[in-house]
Known about the structure:
Blueprint: H1 2-5, H2 22-26, H3 34-50, H4 54-65, H5 75-89, H6 96-119, H7 121-138, H8 142-158, H9 162-176, H10 181-198, H11 201-211
Amino acid sequence: MAKALAGRTAELTSLSDDGFDEQDLAAMATTSNFNQTAYYFIAKLRLSYLAGDAVEACTWAERADALLPSFAGQPGQGELAVLRALARLATLPTEAAARTEALDGVRGGLGQLEAWAAGCAPNFEPKARLVRGELAAAEGDLAAADAAFVEAIASATAHGFTQWAALAAERRGQAIGRSDPSAARALFAEAAAHYRAWGATRKATELEGLAARDPAAV
Length: 218
């Protein structure tokens, strides 16, 4: 996954490089090593979401969730909770009843993240704030969304979680892009700096490109 983020694989969603073929790694999905299989699914979930393919991300989230008993209580459960919520919010149905059901599911996941944050703020507060911001954006409350994204960036930065600061800055930029393109460009530059510090040079380059665009095109 680190190689994919750094641009050392064929594409962001690929784990194949010059020395290894992802097909060999994916073979674990046909074994009973459910713990490691789940972490493979979570890696694919993260990469799909960061690549902008939320539909594919939801597929990986469902596959990982089916194996939750094999990694419950481990770091992967927290990763799954936040990334699954973000992917769901990016693929909300347009039909009213289905949309309400999806939003209720995200709120349930957010409640779990906030409960974990109450017990371990450094690990879970940035994740919970990020999901809260994206949820508020989906509900059309852009002021609440922006406030939550600001809190997510600050919390992630304070606790040393560069990857979550990067994603929160990216999502904040996307949320305000239409109303304030110049501010969005500054946020994309901020996100790029966080991604580059994390080692995700492929994502950093992508965001630097957005930051350099004409404000009218953001």
